[in-house]
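User: Please predict the structure of the protein below. I'd like the answer in structure-token form so I can feed it into my own downstream comparison script.

Assistant: Understood. Taking the following sequence of 348 residues as input:
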Amino acid sequence: MKINGNENILVIQTAYLGDLAMTLPMVQVLKKNYPKINIDIICLPDTSKLIENNPYLRNVIKYDKRKTEKGILPTWSLIKRVQLNNYNIALIPHPSLRSSIIACLGKINVRVGFSKSAGKFLFTHITPFNKFQHEVERNISLLENLGISPSKKETSEYYPSLKEKNNIENIIQKNTNDEIGIITIAPGSVWKTKRWMPERFAEVISELIKKNYLVFAIGGTSEDGIGKQISELVSSSKFINLIGKLSLLESIELIKRSVLLISNDSAPLHISSGVNTPVVGIYGPTDPRFGFWPYGENDVIIETNNLSCRPCGMHGGDKCPIGTWECMEKISSKKVLEGVENIISTKK
């Protein structure tokens, strides 16, 4: 179908932070092709912090489906709100039945989603789900239903406020002495099996400090315990634990100012390509080839190959299904440091 460029479009992405990060390029491509189009998005309150100050979006609709708006009545209230906004098109990269129902009962005539969605029977336009395509490109492929095929790679854009930028500048200035650069680590993840061991992170940090790098740790408040564990193992003023102390956009600004990021398979890894910071990505139970590899140019993937149990799922879990956690146990600090050196050598 062709659009005229004056439509009201709703994007529904109520999954996790990394999923929203990989949805933004689709939003950007749509707006760049049709500057007069209005784009609203439904997302979780926590993930909405990623898109503060975003010029591509008209409205951000926060839907707390896991907490305060859990259940039928709050969801029906959201549907009524959607109806009032008179959307012409819904783009639904999130493959849940609930997202499809919201678009359908919200009286949106054109509903676009993937063939793997639980609610695909409610779509008017179905896009084949390519299992081995990067998630960013998969999401952008939804736009082909609207006659849009981008000619170049699109990465996410983020918009920290001046206050947030200045705060990061002050933190860096306060802690910098004669170091040769900043390296940021993101040791957390929503899923416990995707978290590389704190003691291994500590080993890597200690070696980086010996090479005269200043190392920062970032993450959400729920990951505070991981930061404390690492801090107890690394006794140096050149390691600064900022887990739970920064806004999301401040964390992104810090990643932008870093030589590289070391991260588990989690949101920071997927955010980094938008600020052109290379990543050493640590993959345990998940397989990056299912569309979730780092999207930058000089990124390095660290993983344990030739395990019959891997991957054990698309997103990991809270415990190893067979109790060995071999996929992470076999990743040594030496492997990660080699990944760091590979990136640094390409910068010279």
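That's the full token string. The chain is about 35% helix and 15% strand.
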